[in-house]
Amino acid sequence: MHSYLNHIMLAYIGFIPFLLCVALTLMVGSSSAVIDAFSYYSLGVLAFLTGSLWRPGEQSQQRAVVAILVIIPFPLLALASQVILLTYLAVAYWLVLVFERSAKTWQETHKDYQKMRFTLTSVVFVSHLFMIAQAVELAG
C-alpha cells in the first residue's frame, strides 16, 4: 500500500466526528454543547492542517509566517460567538487549502491526495455551514 493511501484513509476517518456532530443535531435538534464540540474538534483539525504546512528548511520565513497566520486568532475566537467562530473556521479551511496549493511541492503531490484535499475541504465547509445555521437558530 502506498503511503499516500494511508493519508487519504486517515483524512476520511478524521471527517467522522464532523459527520457525527451534524447527525446528532439532526436527531436531537440544535444544541450548544454539540456546536461547541464541533467547533473544538474543528479548531484542532485546522491547527493540525496548518502545522503540517510548516516545513522547516523547505520554505522562506515569509511562507512560514503565512502558515501560522491562520491560527494566530485562535485565542480571540474564545471570546467570539459560535456563529463568528464557525464562520472563521469555514473560511480558514479554504485558506489552508489555497496556501497548500500555492506551494511548489503541490504539483509533485499525488493526484489522489489533491482530489481528497479538495473533496474534504468542500464537505467540511458544508458541515460548517450547517452548524452555522444551527448556531443562528439557537441565537435567535
UniProtKB/TrEMBL annotation:
Keywords: Membrane, Transmembrane, Transmembrane helix. The chain crosses the membrane at residues 6-26, 38-54, 66-97, 118-136. It comes from the Bacteria. This is Membrane protein. It comes from Pseudoalteromonas rubra. The lineage of its organism: Bacteria, Pseudomonadati, Pseudomonadota, Gammaproteobacteria, Alteromonadales.
